[in-house]
Amino acid sequence: MDLEFITTYYQFFLSGTINTVLLAFFSVLGGTMVGVILALMKLSEKKPVKFLASAYIEFVRGTPLLVQLFLIYYGLPHIGIDLPDMVAGIFAVSLNSGAYVAEIIRGGIQSIDKGQMEAGRSLGMSYKMTMKEVIIPQAFKNILPALGNEFIVIIKESAIVSVIGIHELMYKTDVVRGITYKPFTPLIVAAIIYFVLTFSISKFLGIAERSMRASD
């Protein structure tokens, strides 16, 4: 297997990796914000609010990410919203991730003892304040491993945004394949990079989880 092309085209892999990490980071950040809102909506006692959150979650989880990406990328310009490719990709992946994160957060919130809410309310805190200051911080501790897994999933699924021209790792890999006429070996390099990214994040999250347990 001839890997000499790496010394010539390593910058392609490097820039692609950086864009992949940026895409995943901002998508998880956006997905977490969307997920918190959806989780609180789904836990609401107001039926219309709960219905809207449930409908959104079921629609997103029931349709392919590729379809959602095309709807955002090609659909928004028709209503006068023209986003840069990278922003459109982050937006689409964030909305997709938000549906999955919402269920993770909802489960985390429901895992907190109901006495915590009652204690907060008895101290004169409002429902919103109790959720913000007491319930949600504890829930995030419980769901950190699941959120970490979502980050890893997004890093792997981010390859799909290459179809709209975002220069992430898979896009750059295809460029190298075209330039070098090597259909196989650049994919091996990309696979190794993806593995290093996901393995490193998994180990980091494990350390963070043990640190939080030790501080309890």
From TrEMBL:
Keyword ATP-binding: no
Membrane topology: Multi-pass membrane protein
Coiled-coil intervals, chain numbering: none
InterPro entries membership: AA_ABC_transptr_permease_3TM (IPR010065), ArtM/GltK/GlnP/TcyL/YhdX-like (IPR043429), MetI-like (IPR000515), MetI-like_sf (IPR035906)
CDD domains associated with the record: TM_PBP2
Domain of life: Bacteria
Subcellular location: Cell membrane
Keywords of this entry: Amino-acid transport, Cell membrane, Membrane, Transmembrane, Transmembrane helix, Transport
Keyword Repeat: no
NCBIfam families: HEQRo_perm_3TM
Protein name: Polar amino acid transport system permease protein
Organism, scientific name: Alkaliphilus hydrothermalis
